[in-house]
Amino acid sequence: MKLWGGRFSKETDELVNELNASISFDQRLYREDIQGSIVHAEMLGAQGIISQEDVRAITEGLEGILADVEAGKIEFTPDNEDIHMNVEALLTARIGDAGKRLHTARSRNDQVALDFRLYVRREIGTVIGQILELEAVLCRRARECRSAVMPGYTHLQRAQPISFAQHLLAYGAMFRRDVTRLEDCRRRLNECPLGSGALAGTTYPIDRFRTAAGLGFDGPMGNSLDGVADRDYALELLSALSILMTHLSRFAEEVILWCSWEFKFVELDDAYATGSSIMPQKKNPDVAELVRGKTGRVYGDLMGLLTVMKGLPLAYNKDMQEDKEPVFDALDTAEMCLPVFAGMIDTMTILPENMRKAAGRGFINATDCADYLTKKGMPFRDAYTATGKLVAACAAQGKTLEELSLEELRAVSDLFNQDVYEALNLENCMALRGSYGGPAEAETTRQIEEIEAFIKARSQ
Predict the structure, then answer these.
(1) Are 172 and 451 in contact (CB under 8 A)?
(2) Per the residue annotation, which of 224, 260, 276, 435 is the catalytic one?
(3) What is the pLDDT of residues 175-210, one digit of tens each?
């Protein structure tokens, strides 16, 4: 007999049972379900709704079920549809009528809303911890290469000289935003839906503030309809994870380019690369490629849940059973990608001499040449035109700007003097870019220290 079976005179069709059951995936909420049930029972007892004897029996029974689940002694059954009914059926079988009193003043609607919030809140902490570990890796690698000159790119064309440290720290800035986005999501979701009932609250004298405090929430949700119908926090989590995966995917794309023979800025550790079944020379960046590919999977999770929620009237609808699998999948994906990606970055060999060689071609000091003339008194637009003529001459002769003789430079402008070669030196070009956020070593050091302080503040 179903726990909800009193109204029905026929057994549920077997295919309907299969469609309706969610235990195959929502069983991972068992900890949250038991935690919420214990706090709910304690509140019922404190309010005199059930006896303290029943509270003790329920609490001991639920703690025993939790221990048995974690010891692998319990197998949940689809006959009881979901994790809530599985736990309640197990509890009733163990302690009798007291187990049947647990559901007083509660519905599966507010129960699942609670379990899911508790789960998402916990998993956000896990993802944040993994991002911070990746940030620590980026800080360490950036410290190693603050003086490593590389070409910065726009349109995938060599543009201006930067350091490899600054490039890594750009991703450090992105991952900081990912952390704060997840923290914002966690703060907004930290309201307790328990006590909303099916949708309209309850006639029992419950204390929603007590259950909210007992479960670590800031307070109860203020509207019982919203309490059971809201999945904004799940959508917000999926959005934050999608942006996080975007950052990982962009980084992965650059790693794939950097370890190609055409760039060869880095060499991946053998533990984070794979080979070819037919080409013995190959060393493939499969970790980066898989992270790039799995990003689309997380986007799909977000779009799937947005589509489920977009037309639902208040309050709870069975469609909302489809909320969990995309969230579980996105979390599983992100939590698998982050530590592997951190390991890949931590162990890769950085090849600064190849970066410097690439920086030496492509006229990435052209802006510095124009700035040199501007500082000598020439309007920037005229300096831009003069430098463009020099670049064209260099391209025709196969030279770099710094390889031009002073006579050749002065043929374009008599403002050029011997000190131009110091201005065109790539190391100087990078070192002089000391504006806030730039590639100069003092600035990258500041950026590293800021990220390290950010990590420390969240590790205390």
Answers:
(1) yes
(2) 276
(3) 999 999 999 999 999 999 999 999 999 999 999 999
